[in-house]
What does this fold into?
Amino acid sequence: MNTDYKLSSNDELTKLAKGNGINSWNELTEFIKNLPYGRNKNRTELGLVLSEKKGTCSSKHAVLKRIADLNNIPNIDLILGIYRMNELNTPEIGTELTNNSIDFIPEAHCYLKINGNRIDLTTKKSEFQKIEKDIIQEKKIKPEQVSKFKVNYHKGFIKKWLKEGNSEIDFNQIWRIREKCIENLTK
It folds into this structure.
């Protein structure tokens, strides 16, 4: 984003950002992407990204979208993308898929569209281009949808994918493998 915006809202999230020395949108995006990857204590409390100083793709992008909305920063959408997660486009997952003879697992990933451009601020190493060709589906969501809605949507997508592919692996087994992949990302 070329234009920077001052954070001027008086809400709790913006105050939390300012308490971390953040006064503009560009400072906020830089701060968030440099935080370590990790799950917060509570998925629904977006402020935990700023207070616990960590977050996932969901929590980090949801807090960014919420603060953008609170500060009237235009043209920012929160996107839930389903992509073919594999060991090439997401090497940090380790060899879980290979060990279980799986080529990929449909993974739900959140990112922003800023002025129509996809931006992944999950970590300082995140590059949307790594997964771009593996996107299966995209959906614009609201920040409060990153908890229950995202998880249910993702589980439903995987169940349908398994059924359509006549997979011999059941949902619980694939979800356990997926959880191990996500656990590997936090190391």
About this structure: The chain has a mean pLDDT of 95. The chain has one domain: 1-187. The longest helix spans residues 148-164. The helical segments are 12-19, 25-33, 48-52, 57-70, 96-99, 129-132, 148-164, 171-185.
